Amino acid sequence: MSPKKEYAISPKRSEDFPEWYQQVIAAADLAENSEVRGCMIIKPWGYALWERIQKQLDLRIKQTGHKNVYFPLFIPLEYLQKEAEHVEGFAKECAVVTHHKLEKRADGKLYPASPLTEPLVIRPTSETIIGAAFSRWIQSYRDLPLLINQWANVVRWEMRPRLFLRTTEFLWQEGHTAHANPEEARQEALSILNLYEEFIRSYLALPVVVGEKPESEKFPGADTTYTLEAMVQDRKAVQVGTSHFLGQNFSKANNIRFLDRNGKMEFAWTSSWGVSTRLIGTLIMAHGDDNGLVLPPTLSPLQVVILPLIKKEEEKPTILEFAEKLINQMEKLEFAGEKIRVEIDKREIGGGIKSWEWIKKGVPLRIEIGPQEISSGILTIKRRDKEVKEKEKLDLQQFLDKLPFLLSEIQQGIYSRAESFLKDHSRFIDTKEDFYEFFSSSDSSDKEIGGGFAYAHWDGSREVEEKLKEDLKITIRCIPYKSSYGDEPGICPFSGNPSKRRVIFAKAY
Amino acid sequence: MSPKKEYAISPKRSEDFPEWYQQVIAAADLAENSEVRGCMIIKPWGYALWERIQKQLDLRIKQTGHKNVYFPLFIPLEYLQKEAEHVEGFAKECAVVTHHKLEKRADGKLYPASPLTEPLVIRPTSETIIGAAFSRWIQSYRDLPLLINQWANVVRWEMRPRLFLRTTEFLWQEGHTAHANPEEARQEALSILNLYEEFIRSYLALPVVVGEKPESEKFPGADTTYTLEAMVQDRKAVQVGTSHFLGQNFSKANNIRFLDRNGKMEFAWTSSWGVSTRLIGTLIMAHGDDNGLVLPPTLSPLQVVILPLIKKEEEKPTILEFAEKLINQMEKLEFAGEKIRVEIDKREIGGGIKSWEWIKKGVPLRIEIGPQEISSGILTIKRRDKEVKEKEKLDLQQFLDKLPFLLSEIQQGIYSRAESFLKDHSRFIDTKEDFYEFFSSSDSSDKEIGGGFAYAHWDGSREVEEKLKEDLKITIRCIPYKSSYGDEPGICPFSGNPSKRRVIFAKAY
Ligand SMILES: [Zn+2]
Ligand SMILES: [Zn+2]
């Protein structure tokens, strides 16, 4: 028997995945719950992740011709009534502003005063208010395509909130576009889907399955909702982004009309798409381990942290000088088109505590520098993707030569591990029995864990969807978009009716 | 008589300044009112200005050791009650959320449903909710200083909104810090004041007067409010930023306590500070002219726009190729530490319309490129800070050599003009008669226009302040902070009582 291994996070993933997730967030100091139910406080390390996501995604959104704008937080209540399906979808979970003043009453307490004639809704998403502006801005085909995006906070009341994954207020980016014909609008929705996929693969090191949502899971008011579904380590799905082809639904509701090339008045075709702080929750659940967060080097706010090993005060100047020089040399190097991000942790706290902090925060590389490293010129490198105690010794020049390669190796390693995990837990299933077995683990240590992604035939009926939701809490995550994978017709194992192609079933967050 | 000059903006500044302001915003396509009263839609060119401000200011805030975070939009109503002055200041103008659902009634319309037990207030500023977190995060002097910042939207109900300058919802940055002693907290507030001043001077090309607010104009709950006051072209003041030393007021209200070095429990000293989208309104009013917006090159999203003069379709490829090469060469150059920002306007609309669009948007340099420019190798340069028709001819290499210098010249020119304006309309005033005359222009063409900044003595009483507010709509903008200017004692011209030093009186937005 080998000695019992110690981990930084308790419980381990295999013991209690949801609790492990909360503990990783606390250990990495990413966020915490505020006293307002469902609303989180994003702390510096968590917000730095969001800033990295914003920076990289914003670049891509701008490069494809979209301009950033800002629309009001408040939506007149009547706007939500304009699109029938949209009402049903969003009216349920809105924060409603009814007063615009507080007044102190006799008991010394504040009470809402000055009621609004028309209540205002905090935007759950901005299709309706942006649609109203589009109808003013768009007159002719010359005004099209209109391509805008905004970074904003939105509010959807959550009864069972979970940090990052499902919060009442969250941060996101929402793109809104209008086009002169349906092909172009659909193409827009699809090219954003590609953009998201590339970004999520290269910056979150996360493989995703892309496809269409079934009717039951569509965005309220969309013709087609395209989705990106990731698998996290309890084998559940997370919808990490969506892109909607809205057809003429919102342009009819908002009267977005234009004079086309032939002088005919026509309703525009629109799209909308977004990703949110949910990406951070997915990242944690997909890559984290029993020692905390694991960050892909492309995304990590810091790629290298230098930990000075100072035992005697008189060693300090030499060690810090050596470290500063090393930082200067590293900062001349690039990885993934950006300057390498490195910092020295000068805090006067124990080396062990300090080192564990950065492990829990998921920084890819740690370098310890003490008198021995300086005299020998040999650096001790520790990688977040290896065992905690594992070290690599490299002389200074070797290390500098190898640094971008090291980061790239870590990046690829994280991606590959997630990709293998996704493959290992994706399965073609052809009988109802196998399906129920797949999603009902008999292994008692595995209770919280769903089976993974089941590629199974489906007759297209709501009945089958509802039955599976009731029995197993399973939903159709998507009708995969890559046509080479499971797109042959077959028989629905639940009804015996014909099926056009396989769809992906999974438990989901 | 010279022929009548035509301007792009009607009315001119001298005719109707407030209306001119609205027209510049429309002509430059910066923003528009939404259907929600007091809430604006920031359009791409306006939002690009905000992004430039964010980028540069964020850099400076981070360089001085502050970390970005994100706190909830919602503040529990009871939080606002914690600090007595703060209640009085903010309770009046809050948006209050009272319900978290909408339900459809028999008439088919939506109504607020599911009332909240405790109403939520949309943050007018975040001292109270951040204070609650600080009280959890801070235990010991080792946790101090705590230096955070957030970029967020805030809401203060406005009865007389004006785009950018005063809107119900606005975008801003709010810094919040906690310190182990009062000196350090005050120093923080002052160094941020310096940071803002440097930023506003170098990026908005705007001179400001810095100083303290009198008691009556302080931030509700602050010990000292430091302010930056700019003068715009109708000679009114705009408060462009504030930095508050909060003493122990918020730490006592929120129980932010720490164990000091001597093992004694102590309340922390805090500061808070912010600038908002109001900076954009000030920029427009300070630098704009009768042809629209005028942007300082450091701030402008674009520094150079290339306008191809294509008369025949066959000239197009040569002209565009020439332009692209020119762009590549320009982008290798730097100005104010950043790559030069240049774009070509390829839209197929009339050259005159196109040129006027960029004039109205305030872009510093326009370059027209047609067959003549290509064959001669001589470029035609037009500067936004000169007359519309004025041009400079430079050969290609000369132009490239001179470009950073040209931008720097424009930058300095814009700053100098604003500085002269501020000086010309600032005056030491020693009698009540002169004071009233200064603020009561007898020139009828000047009706809307206040006198400027009056440096006058003040006895420190609320009576004088209230009388001047009533008679002239004049307030004390600040007690100037630079001690070399008007800080000798004297006699208050309004009461005859002694005065410690001169203060600045002005009309203000
Ligand atoms: Zn497994
Ligand atoms: Zn003047």
Automatic annotation (TrEMBL), chains A, B:
InterPro entries (UniProt xref): aa-tRNA-synt_IIb, aa-tRNA-synth_II, aa-tRNA-synth_II/BPL/LPL, Anticodon-bd, Anticodon-bd_dom_sf, Pro-tRNA-ligase_IIa_arc-type, Pro-tRNA_ligase_II_C, Pro-tRNA_synth_II
Coiled coil: none
Protein's name in the database: Proline--tRNA ligase
SMART domains per the UniProt record, alphabetical: ProRS-C_1 (SM00946)
Keyword Isomerase (UniProt): no
A Pfam entry, by short name: tRNA-synt_2b
Upper classification of the organism: Bacteria, Pseudomonadati, Verrucomicrobiota, Methylacidiphilae, Methylacidiphilales
Principal subcellular localization: cytoplasm
Annotated source species: Methylacidiphilum caldifontis
Function: Catalyzes the attachment of proline to tRNA(Pro) in a two-step reaction: proline is first activated by ATP to form Pro-AMP and then transferred to the acceptor end of tRNA(Pro).
Gene name of this polypeptide: proS
Record text about domains: Consists of three domains: the N-terminal catalytic domain, the anticodon-binding domain and the C-terminal extension.
